Structures are given as C-alpha cells and as structure tokens.
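In this section we walk through a basic example: taking a raw amino acid sequence and producing a predicted 3D structure, encoded as discrete structure tokens. The instruction is simple. Fold the sequence below.
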Amino acid sequence: MNRRDFLAGAATGVVAGTASAYAVTQHRRDPAMPPQETAAPKPASAAKPAAPAIAKGIRELKMVTTWSKNFPGLGTGAQRVADRVGALTGGKLIVQLFAGGELVPHFESFDAVSSGAADMYHGADYYWRDKSQAFNFFATVPGGFTASELNAWIHHGGGQKLWDELAAGFNIKPMLCGNTGMQMGGWFNKEIKSLDDLNGLKMRVPGLGGEVMRRLGASIIPLASKDVFPALQNRAIDAAEWFGPWNDLAFGFHKVTKNYYGPGFHEPGLALTLGINKEVWDSLSQDQQYVLLHASSAENDYMRAEFDARNGEALSTLANQHGVQLRSFPDDVLKAAGAASAEVVAEIGNSDGMTKRVYDSYIAFRASITRWTTLSEKAYMTARGAFFPA
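The resulting token sequence is shown next.
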C-alpha cells in the first residue's frame, strides 16, 4: 500500500496558527464554505510559548486533472475542492493540484491514480470508456439524465453502488464532483432547416454525441481543443460543439459564425468525477473520508450553480452585443437524434456484463424519474414561458 504521510518540520503552535489562517483565507476565496468561528485572540502577556515538538498528522495528496490550468468552471472547480479540503481539515489534509500536463498528460490521469502515481483525479469519466463503456453513464450520454436526474440516480437509484463496483476494478473510489448542466448543440456555419442539411456536414463533436451525429449524416472530424476555433474559422469544418455560452463566449466562436443551436441533446448534463486511489481512500480516517465526500458534494452543487449563472450572463452578451442568432434544431433533426441516441446508448449498454447492469439500472431509473420531471419541471418551464411575465 502506498502511503504518502509526511511530517511537517514546524512547531505545534506555528502549525495551529497556520491552519487557522488557512481556513479563514479559504473561506474568503470560496463563498460556498461555511464561516469559520474563531476565538478572540488572547493578550500577548497571556500567550503560551510555542511548543518545540515537531507537528504530526499532516498529509498531502496529489490531484491530477484533465483540465488546463485555471480552465473556467472545470479547472477552477478542481481547485475549489482542493481548497475546501485544506480548510475543512484545518490544514491537516492538503490537496496539491496539478493541471493537465503538469504531472501527467491530461488523459493519463485515470491510469496515474489507478497505479498510485497520483492520489486522485478530477475529470469526466467518459474519457475512460476504453477501460469500460460503463463509465459513459457516470458522465453523460446522448438523451440521458439532466444534472438533477443524475444526482437522483447516483444517490437514491443504486448508481453509486454500481459505480463503486465498476471503479474498484481499477483501484479507484469515485464520487460526483461537479456538473456543467445542459450544454448547447453547437455553432454552425449555415442554418440547419431540416435533417437533410446535416448530410455531409463536417462537424467536430466528440464521443457518443459524435456517433449520433454521424448516423444523422454528418462527417465527424476529430480535433484537439486548440484546433477547433481555427478549423471553424478556416472552414475546415462546418460546425463545432463546445460547452455552453460561458465557455463558448471565451473561446470566441461568435467571431466566426452567428448560428448557435440547442439543445445539446448529446450532453444534457456533464458530470465530473473526483476519483481517489482505493488504497489511499481506505487508508484515510473516517472523518477525512467524510471531508472528501462533502467537499466533493459541495462542488457538485456549486459548479452547477456557477455554470447556470455564467451561461445566463454570457448568453445575453452573445445575443445582445454580438448579434448571435439563438436557434433550435428542427423537429425532424431532434426526432432522428432521439432514435439514433437510443441505438448508440443501447449498443454500448449491452457491450459486456458489467456495462449491461449499469445500463439496465440507468434506463429503468430514467423511465421512472422522467414521468415526474415531465409533469413537474418541464410542465412548469413551459407554463412559465407562455404565461408568466419575464
């Protein structure tokens, strides 16, 4: 078992003061953190001399991510988790974050944590579908759960138990740690008026969403993130999917085309994972495990709220300041996309025994919860849009 405990060479009194300052500092940086109650300082005359003993019980964990440094929402979310853990433990459990490429390449994060070369990763589990297609269901699939529906399945529909079993086979303990919420369908150089307009269209859209679009007639062009904007600008591709208004505005897609389509049926709510090396997880005390669970859970809520808030602001900027045309996919496109999504998801869902168990649970829970969300959230949204003043 790889242990990464280390002893800090500092006096006990110094460490205690540092931990308190650390917690207060992190609270100021992260409004999601609860206030830290601190006792009033004692007069200097009453202060006790610092103890000379070497401080013990401090542990450092290495987190690797699939995101570039300070990537808005995703990379900054991973940093918030690291900050929360340090604050909640008074500096006794420190998470050192390494952006993609700093310690290991972006998409080697999973292997690094599985092998023990790193202690935890922050990323989207559909990146690991070459390990098992079942991982797709714990990130997002076309026509799948919204963010709130996924939370319900994970916590109350048996999803976490299946996820734990799947990831344990790779020496990892997984937990939800962020969600982008609903994404957009992409930027198109021409208006999409019918399903026929997708025939031969060159598009960058990764993963299962790309396979759905291929079955609708598009030609899928794989591109690294840094190459997407210039390819769209130079007409090497006709369309590109990215995230949503917040990140899309920052990427500058509105400078190339004004046709912005939704909904993002291919990724209705991308969940992010905090994956922890299983041996490291098992070696932590129960209170340290609770800290990681709750720090991760807090980020799951906080990131979703941040994406919703920033997407709303960015969408107004795109439409009002940059003349972007907000368009909906035609009904025949959505109908065909629904059928193709069901085919693609069923194919991967039946690819092996473990994946089929995950798929069966996912589909059964979706049938149950969508009856409720259609009657409640969807019906309310429709009514609000038609009858309630903005």
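Looking at the output, two observations stand out. The mean pLDDT is 88. The CA atoms of residues 80 and 260 lie 31 Å apart. In the next section we compare this with other chains.
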